[in-house]
Amino acid sequence: MKLIRSHVVAVAFSFLLVTLVLAFPASASVGSANLKVTIIETSPYPAKIGQYLTLTVQVENVGGDKAENVDIRVVPEYPFSLDSSANAVRNIGALGPGRTATKEIHLFVDKGARKGTRSIDIYSRPSGDSPWSEETFDIRIGTETFDSKGTVELKEIVSEPEVFMPGDRGTVTLTLCNTATTPTVTIGGEDFDTNARIQSAVLETSNDGITVSSAPYVEMGLLGPGDSIDLTFNVEVGEDVGGGTHNLVLAIEGNSFDYSSRKNVPLEVDSSNVRVIPSKPLEMVDGKAILEFDVANTHPNEFSSVSIKPEAEGVEFYPAEYFIGPMDPDELFTIEFDATYGNPVGGYGGDREPINMSLTASYSNGINRHENIAGNLELSTGSPESDSLEFDSGAAVAGGVVALFVPAALLFYRRKKQ
Length: 418
What we know:
- This protein has helices at about 1-25, 385-415; strands at about 35-45, 50-60, 65-75, 80, 90-95, 100-110, 115-125, 135-140, 150-160, 170-180, 185, 190-195, 195, 200-205, 210, 215-220, 220-225, 230-235, 245-255, 260-270, 275-280, 285, 290-295, 305-310, 315-320, 320-325, 330-340, 355-365, 370-380.
- By secondary structure, the protein is mainly beta.
- The strands form 8 sheets. Strands 22-29-28-24-26 form a 5-stranded mixed beta sheet.
- β9 and β10 (about 170-180) form a beta hairpin.
- It is flat and about 90 Å long.
């Protein structure tokens, strides 16, 4: 009986071990490099028959380890073909955890291709000795023509945050509306419905520092007269993008080529931030002070979770960090800190060097957390009591010298006169 139990336990343990190995393969280890491939832009979209097509492919390392030498490989099938067989494999190089890189792939769409959706395979591998991983993507070719006469217009643009800062991520939501006001329209004695068909919509950018990471919208159906639809695109602004208005382009394929359009989508970028200005002299008396500052939001839109943290060597502040909360554009907020100089060198009297003091502002612009040094100041230390004492003793010494000098002068004068 004991032997049978041992065999049963051994078999159960083996089964559990096999189950765990199958459930957690080595390639899915949290600590390994893991690549995610996405086509973030197709230009033109839909692909045009008999023309070149550019695919912008994004590779992201979603694993926990560095990918040492990333390759991507494209295996096109009819009606697609590569511009050159030498471009079948594209090297990206090293890619750290959480990092992304993009490559452009140029394909030719055969002149005999038919309208519709075709697929393309893209392979990726984290290093030269790793196996290839395959992902399949659908590419739309051509635009269908419909008799509907509804017209699509860009009605509203909403950015979140309203004004981006360099390095920010956010969204741009575009509202498209069918401007028709009646169910039908008569043209040349023939009646047509006024429904609007949006076959595709893609947000494009010509600025290398601004990335649109959302795939194109396709086959969104019908919009009746006066109906609208919201399209949201993820946008990322690079750290080196300058301030000002940057124009993105919304390319819309409508009922037919005649009703397709390209709309400018402005994206505002501004690097102005939170400033902190002393509202009274920064002076300590006998190692203590109440410091007062004006905090100003100089950015064009609201910041949230604004806080100010002072720092100075040897000085303790209360509160250690002042939480303000939301601040509107051009809003001014006055804050105070109690400061105590804990261990002054040589006491509070005599020559005293000013203390370097900095204030760090932390705040959120949309979902993005920012931090900047809002003030780099000097905090003077002193003691009026010791200063007055020095003055009084100096005056007393000077008075004594004068008192001694006067009788001596009189004595000298008298002797000279005799």
